[in-house]
Amino acid sequence: MSESDTPTPPVPNRAGLEALGQAVEGRQGGARHRQRVKRSPKKIVMVTLATVVVVIVAAVAGDYWYINHLIHHVKITTITKTYNNAENILLVGSTTRCGLKVQDAAYGLCSQGVTGVNSDVVMILHLNLTTNQVSILSLPRDLFVPNARKDGANKIDAALYNGPSQLVAAIQEDFGIPINHYVELNFDTFADVVNVLGGIKMYFPMEVFDAYSQLYVPHPGCIQLNGKRALEVVRARHLQIRFPGDSTDYRNWPQEALSDLARIRRDHEFLKVLADAVKAKGIVNPLTDQRLATSVARYLTVDQGLTTSALLSLAEHFHGVSVGSVPELTVPVVLVQTPEGYLYQGYYYGDVEFPIDPGVTQTVDRFLDLAPDINTMDGKPLPASSSITVSVLNGTGVPNQQHVVAAGLRRRGFVIRGVGTATPFGVREETVVYHANNSASSLAAAQTVLHTIEGPAVMALGRTTGGAEVTVLTGSDVSVLAPPHTTSTTTTTLKRKHHGTATTTTTRPVTQITVVDPSAVKHDTDLSAPTDVTQALQLWDPRSCGPNGTEGP
User: Fold this and answer.
1) pTM given for the model
2) What confidence tens digit (pLDDT) does each residue in 522-545 have?
3) Number of domains in the chain
């Protein structure tokens, strides 16, 4: 089934949909997260293509200086140094309208005040030059984190409004993931890449529709997608599916859940299909390479240290890696499930997600291929808990919570410098582990503490209390993991009348008992179960095409 065979559905009440999302784009320059509104139907979502784009741009060695001149370099002050011969590249899809070469009413117009800048797609590419290992980690755009903006907490996608340096800082301060390079694309780049390739094919197992992105697939099959239609696929986060027995009216089809995470798994699949399309074209084809590189480079924004020579070096080193075999991970989260949206400091933020531990720390260690006792920021061993001073503040108002958490941390060996209370800003589900500065030692201390926390939790740069290196601000559903089992050894000396003495040694396991006051922990029924780190395709998700228009692997 070709693209021309696909009818375009009538636009469902476009004026009404525009009204729904009018405030979302932030007519005051990105203030959309301060209002409780639904997502705009014009909101564009950019799949991050940098894993493919970086290779394409770098491959054109003959046009080295020309390509380097086209790429836009931006100074990022928060970039960190590499270690263990590995590179972490932050890949960002920007929602900018004002930066587009051609304004398109379907995406919202800069001239009409759609000036918000957000990062709807945030992926990190990990490249180990020693082992040749490659992995990808996605951060859901609706993650609510303490250091998203310079003025405080927000969704992670709001950080880009303060510039790339702020987004990099938020990821490092809150998740301990070092960022060595930065690549930003917009949807012009996306469409150009797909069109230069001659379009790509994807197999749709079921009929789907998305009123926001305008994706409409009325018949299953292998469909040829140009740049614009491919955008509809990767933008889709309000997907409706026609199941057997449903009517032909797409407006009545049921909508999938977990829209933010569902889009991530489809973006991961699209990335694989795109990589296969690039490979099929032949990356050594001078004409194809030049067209791809020149069309992409002028819309590519990278950090000051990511030169064309560096791109070329990475491309040569990893040219044999199959994208299909690359682990694609997503930070595990819990969703806040309230009809009115998340309320924080007097503002409604709509649908939000919280990182969940110990899942996040384990996922980051897996992504970076590090042992759990290693500092993710510099590769050195984490400090012993006995060397770290901690204070605990009650952030929920639940009686005695700070004392229970402090007792748990004390059993883990931390030195407690004091307990106290903080003024709750409303419903606070996240526990925040504050570190006083961005030094490697301060972050390492916070990581050591975070490794003992169970529940919705995240690190943050902020003021500590009581002279402690780390301050834990408690949230709901927080607990401290019990210490690992230890053993006790008893040596007994027996005196024998005619045969001297005999010594026996007995080793017994010591069971660690954690005493928890149930009244000190608030279990919030508005939180979902933790999501999976790897997202499997669902029955209705598009995927690669096989021979003769069949479903691919």
Assistant:
1) 0.80
2) 445 588 889 999 988 999 999 999
3) 1
